[in-house]
Design a protein that fits this description.
The protein is mainly beta and about 290 residues long. It has strands at about 1-10, 15-25, 35-40, 45-50, 60-65, 75-85, 100, 110-115, 130-135, 140-145, 150-160, 165-175, 180, 185-190, 200-205, 210-215, 235-245, 245-250, 265, 280-285, 285-290, 290-294. Strands 9, 10, 12, 13 and 14 form a five-stranded antiparallel sheet that branches. Strands 17, 18, 20, 21 and 22 form a five-stranded antiparallel sheet that branches. Strands 4-1-6 form a three-stranded antiparallel sheet, with no helix packed on it. It starts with a strand and ends with a strand.
Length: about 290
């Protein structure tokens, strides 16, 4: 049966962590059924999380909502939870091998791959065809029909122009004769992603009035995936200006489209030679990382 919990944190500055367990007693040792794995979330806006109770024997079971956030995160609120009625035993089990992949070159699409369940919740072999319902962030996308149990399936979801880039959660659920099984979920970032942050960079004066900036090439995006085309990352170099006693981005010294080289040389006016700074920024498919001061 499905368990849904409505929760929230304090702000986007703090990560909260929650898990749900079930067991035949309220002790830690007895809470040995995983209902929802450790899940991180941020923000005070309502979060809707869910999981499934899958007992192997009949009996009375207790739910445990375990707050596992790091110390001093201040707030994890649970406003309510819901327990749905048991799922029909003739419905398919959940997909065990769902993968949700993004396009690392920034195409606004996600690819779902999975194997159609071959057994129902009661453990019996499925003899007919199966439907697979696919959802994105809780909204129906499509239903694949006439699928053979155990067959490999792939579905590509392409965002519309009105859809924002970001993390999307996909859900696939097997259906037999209207009986919906246990859903399987997977998430990924869809769309172009900003490059990862600079790891090493330096600024040195190579001769009077001439400075040179060097930095390590950025080969991954901020989501952690490798960017397969090295020259897809463009670098921007800016002069630094003081605003409200802080350094801020000034005039761009590189071309507007950026450069692919990992070094840049420029001259410095006489009055700025005592203290001169540059600001670096990397760009991939129109998304820029945080500025790095040198």
């Amino acid at each position: 049966m499905n368990v849904t919990v409505y929760c929230g944190g304090l702000s986007d500055a703090f990560t909260e962590t929650l898990e749900i367990k079930a067991g035949s007693d309220t002790t830690v040792a007895a809470m040995n059924l995983e209902v929802m794995k450790r899940t991180d979330f941020r923000g005070s806006s309502p979060q809707v999380l869910s999981g499934f109770i899958r007992p192997k024997t009949d009996g009375v079971y207790h739910l445990g909502f375990h707050a596992l956030s790091a110390a001093n995160n201040y707030t994890l609120n649970i406003s309510k939870y819901e327990i749905a009625e048991p799922i029909n035993g003739s419905a398919p089990v959940d997909v065990e091998d769902l993968t949700v992949s993004r396009d690392v070159m920034g195409a606004r699409e996600a690819t779902l791959s999975f194997t159609v369940p071959s057994k129902n919740i009661q453990g019996e072999a499925i003899t007919g065809t199966v439907e697979m319902k696919i959802q994105r962030n809780g909204a129906d996308l499509t239903t694949l029909t006439g699928l053979q149990p155990g067959s490999k399936q792939t579905y590509v979801d392409r965002l519309k122009d009105t859809d924002a880039d970001g993390v999307y959660t996909y859900c696939v659920t097997g259906v037999i004769n209207g009986a919906e099984g246990i859903p399987a979920e997977g998430s990924t970032y869809v769309g172009p992603c900003a490059p990862a942050e600079f790891t090493t960079a330096s600024l040195v004066e190579i001769s009077e009035g001439t400075v040179k900036a060097d930095w390590a090439a950025i080969t991954t995006d901020s989501y952690g995936d490798i960017i397969p085309e090295a020259d897809a990352v463009k670098y921007h170099v800016y002069s630094a200006v003081i605003q409200d006693e802080f350094l801020a981005i000034g005039q761009e010294l590189t071309p507007a489209a950026g450069i692919i080289a990992t070094t840049f040389t420029t001259t410095v006016s006489q009055e700025k030679q005592d203290a001169f700074y540059l600001i670096l920024q990397a760009e991939f498919k129109g998304k820029k990382n945080s500025a790095s001061q040198q």
